[in-house]
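Bumping with the actual sequence this time:
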Amino acid sequence: MEDNLSFWVFSKSIVIPRLLEGMAITLKLTIISGCIGFILGMLIALFRISRSPVLRSLAAFYITLFRGTPLLLQILFIYFAVPTLINVTFDSFPAGILALSLNCAAYLAEIFRAGILSIAKGQTEAARALGLSHYQTMFKIIIPQTYRRIIPPVVNEFSALTKDTSLVSVISLGELLYVTQRIGAKYLRPWEVYVWAGLGYLIIVICLSTLASRLEKSLLAKGGV
């Protein structure tokens, strides 16, 4: 019977309501994984530029591992292999969050490191001349100045993260792409379903870009460097 429905009627009654549910899961994955990845990425970046050779090596290994292997492999490994190693069962949602967060952190760490290193060395020398410790110099002088500089690449990474959430469909997590595939297979009207799914991803990315643009203008107006 659905085959006889017009594009708009089929979309309004069947596709859009279900895709909105999947879109909500995609947003949750993006926001939660992005926040965890942001914090972890900053920590790894600080390890990467640490004076400790051990911390630098650990950070470099982490970044190489997660940037050098496919995200799909990381998702499958965390969902299927890790539980057998530590005897803990992961549901698909926390497994997806963990994989996306760890992967996102590796890319954000390099963004943060580049932002920190872009600050003129003279500022560090001036801070040390004023008697500030390395910790005080980093968190009171250097890091606050990196925020506006890293906004564009961070937003790009979050946009990529939004699209990467589609990969968790392989572990049957009901995000946007998973729901899209199920509806397309059930009703055999894939082109209509995939058009709306693509629009959903596009809306999320545009919202992120708009938010970042406003944040950057706000920092500029307040004198952020």
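The tokens above came from a reply further down the thread. Helices lie at 7-48, 53-68, 71-86, 92-117, 121-129, 134-164, 176-187, 190-221.
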